[in-house]
Amino acid sequence: MSTEKSLVQGLVERIGIEGSLLTQKVEGKEKYVINEDIKNHKDAIKLVLDALVDPNHGVIKSMDEISAVGHRVVHGGEKYSDSILIDENVLQSIKDCIVLAPLHNPPNVIGIEACMELMPNTPMVAVFDTAFHQTMPKHAYICPLPYELYEKYGVRKYGFHGTSHKYVSYKLAEVMNKDIKDLKIITCHLGNGCSLAAVKNGKSVDTSMGFTPLAGVMMGTRSGSIDPSVISFLVEQHGYTIEQVDELLNKKSGVLGISGVSSDFRDVLAASEEGNKRATLALEIFYYKVRTQIAAYAGAMGGVDAIVFTAGIGENSSITRKEILKGLEFFGFTINDEKNSIRGEIQEISNEDSKVKVYVIPTNEELMIARDTAKLVK
């Protein structure tokens, strides 16, 4: 952590299904791939730990060299506004939030418990996706529903991708050589899941995802915010079950639903270039939704100093950035096409005389998790 140099990166895929594998890449070595039947998350973590100490492909001699483990946890509810050392009470709180994040928190819990079992004396830290947004004012996070729904069931906006929004906003201040307390920043995390955040003076004051990651702008397979009456219309008039509607909104909508091509923006862009009108429409809707959200957050903060693009699409698609920003030139920026042609590296893409600066900053949630973990363990 003294140099923040990454020693090894890895990924375990297809846990519990056919074709499971582990991929590990150590600096200066060939990629190491293990094709093995990985039944569950405990097996997966054991495989990861074995790979780390492997004499030929690993990076450490023994597990004693690992001082701590940082876990990304999607939902911490209202309880956690920062990362925390995991004990039994914290673990129970993460389990209590399963009702708020039924797709994400259960595997987070499995991962934590597996590490605790395999590394019983190593400190564990939870880094919450919701934590950065706990600074939102009440008028930004309370839903306009009967207030008792918030009091009884915790129905409110929580926001997600907080680790990414925090990293890129603080990195931007560093790159601009400014104090983050003097900046109004709009961060655009655009991947298969998309969210924007209004970061004023280093604090999140609003974000586009809501009670769940379904709200906000249109995404790869998620609808984003729609008229809630669409749900009762489909259920009452057309016989959909709640489960079917939930799957429709989360897995069959967004860019996939409109284009009929794919949830992958690269495929949709290719189809659009070949003349597919629905693919073109899907992209136009996406650009429009993000563009209007940027404008809204400038209003929420009383201005904007910088706009940042990050995550898979935000970092790598120059055409997406350019199309989203069309119509926002009145903020006081112009885009430099040559600078905007970059992929996956830190770059100001606005011209030098721009009043509002536009940047691409690759996110690094793993580093953010490592920093928080190191800080808490010390």
Automatic annotation (TrEMBL):
Residues annotated as binding substrate: R72
GO cellular component, as recorded: cytoplasm
Transferase listed as a keyword: yes
Reaction(s) catalysed (UniProt annotation): acetate + ATP = acetyl phosphate + ADP
EC number: 2.7.2.1
Note accompanying the cofactor annotation: Mg(2+). Can also accept Mn(2+).
Residue ranges of coiled coil: none
Organism in which the protein naturally occurs: Clostridium celatum DSM 1785
Protein name per Swiss-Prot or TrEMBL: Acetate kinase
Quaternary assembly: Homodimer.
Gene: ackA
